[in-house]
Automatic annotation (TrEMBL):
UniProt record similarity statement: Belongs to the HAD-like hydrolase superfamily.
Keywords tagged on the record: Signal
Species of the source: Cottoperca gobio
An example Gene Ontology CC term for this record: mitochondrion
Protein name as annotated: Haloacid dehalogenase-like hydrolase domain-containing 5
A Pfam family hit: Hydrolase_6
GO annotation, biological process: glycerophospholipid biosynthetic process
Keyword Signal among record annotations: yes
Length: 453
């Protein structure tokens, strides 16, 4: 398979300015290589971790991808114990971690523990400032149980809200009150809105969420555009598209967010604002996944810190963009650390400071909105490589990744990312392009100098 040529960006200038000041991970080769015909440079004995997307990489809907079972034979020993730290990072969020772990265990014929599963909403555990607020949650599945499990103490569901205000949900004529106007029971005002994933009845959720935002959390009040900025909104999973059994991608929660943003702007004239956007491709999601990798490495008895991450996914806009964005965050952290060390040693930092200061700044959305939740720079890995497989959203038959920065594919010109993320085509370029997840794991083992069985 072919290793992809990276585009020249300000971040590459940042990376080059850090050479010699911080340990680097070679994810931006200047020439393409074919790893089936040439030996990749080995990494030595340092430790690494694997981040697996699920839909389109391991499964299509409820059907496992054949290569997935094969690749996990390389990842566990004869006793079923993992040889390397593995975390499953998915933007799904309409279930509990335990349920997703059991589902994966059945599909892959290996034991998957809840500690190895990260759903789109998992980082909300760190947003403790919202845990005592009264929150309205939107999604499907056990959303109330999920919210309580994440630490939220006062939870209102969309169904609870429509029961309390029976006159609000009237798009579906069959759900309208028939004989008499039912009384409004009312609820205490809502302080924040949490969007877990795409709901079943979009029109109901869209209508009631707009009601809450335009009445300062109290649908008993009259709509007012003066209620701006609105109460906090936290959204999980920005995937515009995802891959199930159908030949073509299906609409994801990102499409629901597009509808909500458009409706709010149409009615009020203002932009919907997010307190936090989490799930891939936000940095906070990968940072949280790295913490799970680190904990797993300790349980495996690895003697050294995790030095490198490999993120395997099928969606250039979510998996690849996110892994590359996190790699840039890691490189920037390394540079900042090197700057401080140089200053404390009384040495001038010269071009290093200039490259850090002039590098493109990540938006609040890309960082996830969770300031102060990231780990110590001493604990962070050196880098994160992105590996794109062709079994899901990305397909060689439908799309072609550019080898020249001057040519971009249609998917990149038509930006599928979230409104609040930068349009940077270089972030959708993978470090490696392979056919399937089995080939991805083989590539990582070869890259790390591990024997294949």
């Amino acid at each position: 398979m072919q290793r992809i040529r990276s585009l020249k960006t300000g971040w590459q200038l940042l990376k080059s300015g850090c050479e010699g000041a911080a340990k680097q991970v070679n994810t931006s080769p200047s020439t393409s290589r074919n790893y089936s015909n040439a030996q990749l440079p080995l990494r030595g004995s340092g430790s690494f971790g694997l981040l697996f997307d699920i839909d389109g990489v391991l499964v299509r809907g409820r059907t496992p991808i054949p290569a997935a079972k094969q690749c996990f034979r390389n990842l566990v020993d004869r006793n079923g114990k993992y040889k390397v730290p593995v975390v499953f990072v998915t933007n799904a969020g309409n279930c509990m971690r335990q349920a997703k772990a059991e589902h994966l265990s059945d599909l892959l014929d290996v034991e998957v523990s809840p500690d190895q599963v990260m759903l789109s909403h998992s980082p909300l555990r760190m947003f403790t400032q919202f845990h005592k607020m009264r929150v309205l949650v939107s999604g499907q599945g056990p959303v109330e149980e999920v919210a309580h499990n994440l630490g939220f103490q006062d939870v209102v569901t969309i169904d609870m809200l429509r029961d309390a205000y029976p006159l609000l949900d009237v798009v579906d004529h069959d759900r309208r009150p028939k004989d008499r106007i039912p009384p409004t029971r009312g609820l205490r005002p809502i302080d924040a809105v949490i969007l877990f994933g795409e709901p079943i009845r979009w029109e109901t959720n869209l209508t009631l969420i707009i009601d809450v935002l335009m009445t300062n959390g109290n649908p008993d009040n009259v709509w007012s555009s003066k209620q701006y900025p609105h109460i906090p909104v936290l959204a999980c999973n920005m995937d515009l598209l995802w891959m199930a059994e159908a030949k073509n991608p299906r609409f994801g929660h990102g499409m629901f967010l597009v509808c909500l943003e458009s409706l709010y702007k149409k009615v009020t004239g203002f932009d919907l604002k997010y307190e936090a956007l989490i799930g891939k491709p936000s940095v906070v999601t990968y940072n949280y996944a790295e913490l799970l990798i680190r904990e797993q490495a300790k349980r495996l008895g690895w003697p050294t810190p995790v030095e490198r991450l490999y993120a395997i996914g099928d969606n250039p806009m979510a998996d690849i963009y996110g892994a590359n964005l996190y790699n840039h965050y890691l490189q920037a952290s390394q540079c900042t650390k090197a700057q401080r060390q140089a200053k404390s040693g009384g040495r001038g930092v010269g071009p290093l400071a200039e490259t850090v200061d002039n590098a493109p700044k990540m938006t609040s959305a890309e960082l996830g909105g969770a300031s102060g939740v990231y780990g110590s720079e001493e604990d962070l890995p050196g880098g994160c490589s992105s590996i794109l497989v062709c079994t899901g959203v990305y397909s060689r038959d439908q799309q072609e990744l550019p080898s020249d920065p001057a040519h971009t594919v249609t998917e990149q010109r038509i930006f599928h990312g979230h409104r609040d993320f930068r349009f940077d085509p270089s972030l959708t370029q993978p470090s490696f392009l392979v056919e399937d997840v089995k080939e991805a794991v083989e590539l990582v083992f070869q890259q790390e100098g591990w024997p294949l069985e």
